């Protein structure tokens, strides 16, 4: 991959591994905006490729990897650091993604980030807000994907209400509209009823927040707008009346495919009926009069997110600050541990080949949140904190980052269960265990919760060994900490880290 080309340094690529199609967009930074210079869409029907046990079938996985191999050809002049590849609803649900994730990384030289529904919603809204930068209207943004539907309310670039609902054009077409390969009024109404039931819990909050305009994104809504325009049922604006007319025509014809519309691809026509049912149900349930279709979606949000690294960092920092406030974390203690953990990282980065950006950041996050579970109970607080981190929606974080953070918090004290790390790739496992060793040592050295400096302690890291050297005076003053260090040396041997505690002469 050519990263020396001065032109390529302004090029970014975003890959959206959706439940209906895989999309790749290559764009160039242009002032405060972007200009698309290439795109590729590969229909994979990933959402329909899960078996009853929520496992990707071999055929679906092979088709998905073939699509990524074609993407790889277009990415040769894009710097690796300017590529993001995210998985959404289907990859969130699939139980056997290890091989697919590994092969995807091999093909593109970049790992898949599986993101939560609310993080997907944030990125979608981010794309729309950059498309209308001077517009200060309160807007409702709707994105109907293959497996989930995102609904976001916000003003400017700040979303204030976000939800991801488990309904999409592929899943609904498969579950409710393909029984006899004929679209009927009865099965269309059933799909709508299911969507209305899913939306019921959202009605009060969304109508209370209100909006000035509604904008729709992604395949279903763009396809609906194009179909309405081609049939001259509207100027492309989606209304309940025009959508009713469109669905009646499709039901009369027996399928959307039978309408023979030029504006919709064969692949999209096979799943659009489920999306139309969700769209019409959403408009009726939330009493939406009209929707404007936007040309941007998750991919543009990913590119804008890469361009606005400072904004992305602010989102992550705000998420951590919110957790600290909500769970009343002792900031003075977390700051002590963070400072020492950072010092240890600087000693370990080179010999342990740690990434000075991503690894350091992950260690800092873990240090700030290692006592997150204290508010629930002091006993087993590390387990409570890990559960919160793994099961919360952390805006700005991928699910892999959440899992890594959860593991560090869970095992920053007491016994280390190597099996908990066994599903990670070898390189990732070693990296995380080494960061865990640094976090455990930092937390142990500050177990007394005092502000006293650790200037008397000399720390050395070489190969797989951490050496702690302390003078006799310090040992006399901190006998419990010294005893803990000796015990910790035994625990760390189980994760291939050697901790040696020595007395200085």
Automatic annotation (TrEMBL):
The UniProt record lists the keyword Ubl conjugation: no
Ppx/GppA phosphatase N-terminal domain sequence ranges: 26-309
Signal sequence, renumbered to the chain: none
Domain Ppx/GppA phosphatase C-terminal: 315-488
E.C. numbers: 3.6.1.11
One Gene Ontology molecular-function label: exopolyphosphatase activity
Domain of life: Bacteria
GO biological process, any: polyphosphate catabolic process
Record keywords: Hydrolase
Designated name of the protein: Exopolyphosphatase
Gene from which the chain derives: ppx
């Amino acid at each position: 991959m050519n990263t020396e080309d001065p032109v390529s340094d302004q090029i970014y690529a975003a890959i959206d591994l959706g439940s209906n199609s895989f999309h790749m967009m290559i764009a160039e930074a242009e002032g405060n905006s972007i200009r698309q210079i290439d795109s590729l869409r590969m229909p994979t029907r990933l959402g329909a490729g899960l078996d009853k046990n929520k496992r990707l079938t071999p055929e679906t996985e092979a088709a998905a990897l073939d699509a990524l191999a074609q993407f790889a050809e277009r990415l040769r002049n894009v710097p690796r650091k300017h590529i993001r590849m995210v998985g959404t609803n289907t990859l969130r649900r699939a139980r056997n993604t290890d091989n697919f994730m590994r092969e995807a990384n091999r093909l593109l030289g970049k790992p898949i980030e599986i993101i939560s529904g609310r993080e997907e919603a944030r990125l979608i809204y981010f794309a729309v807000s950059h498309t209308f930068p001077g517009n200060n209207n309160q807007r409702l943004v709707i994105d109907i994907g293959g497996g989930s539907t995102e609904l976001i309310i916000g003003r400017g670039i700040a979303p204030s209400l976000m939800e991801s609902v488990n309904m999409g054009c592929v899943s609904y077409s498969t579950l409710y509209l393909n029984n006899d390969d004929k679209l009927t009024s009865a099965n269309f109404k059933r799909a709508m009823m299911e969507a209305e039931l899913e939306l019921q819990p959202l009605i009060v909050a969304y109508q209370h927040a209100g909006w000035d305009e509604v904008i729709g994104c992604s395949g279903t809504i763009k396809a609906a707008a194009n179909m309405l325009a081609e049939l001259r049922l509207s100027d492309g604006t989606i209304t309940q009346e025009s959508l009713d007319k469109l669905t009646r025509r499709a039901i009369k014809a027996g399928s959307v495919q039978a309408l023979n519309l030029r504006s919709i691809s064969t692949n999209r026509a096979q799943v659009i009926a489920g999306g139309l049912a969700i769209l019409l149900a959403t408009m009726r349930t939330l009493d939406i009069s009209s929707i404007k279709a936007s040309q941007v979606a998750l991919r543009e949000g990913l590119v804008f997110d890469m361009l606005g690294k400072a904004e992305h960092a602010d989102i992550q920092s705000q998420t951590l600050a919110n957790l600290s406030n909500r769970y009343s974390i002792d900031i003075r203690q977390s700051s002590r541990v963070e400072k020492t953990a950072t010092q240890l990282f600087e000693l370990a980065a080179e010999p342990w080949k740690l990434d000075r950006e991503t690894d350091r950041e992950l260690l800092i996050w873990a240090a700030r949140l290692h006592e997150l579970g204290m508010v629930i109970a002091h006993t087993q607080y590390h387990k409570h904190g890990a559960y919160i981190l793994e099961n919360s929606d952390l805006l700005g974080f991928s699910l892999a980052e959440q899992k890594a953070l959860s593991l560090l918090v869970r095992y920053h004290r007491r016994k280390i269960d190597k099996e908990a790390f066994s599903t990670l790739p070898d390189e990732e496992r070693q990296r995380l265990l080494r960061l865990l060793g640094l976090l455990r040592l930092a937390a142990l050295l500050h177990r007394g919760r005092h502000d006293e400096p650790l200037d008397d302690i000399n720390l050395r890291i070489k190969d797989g060994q951490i050496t702690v050297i302390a003078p006799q005076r310090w040992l006399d003053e901190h006998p419990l900490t010294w005893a803990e260090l000796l015990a910790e040396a035994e625990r760390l041997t189980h994760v291939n880290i050697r901790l040696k505690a020595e007395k200085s002469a």
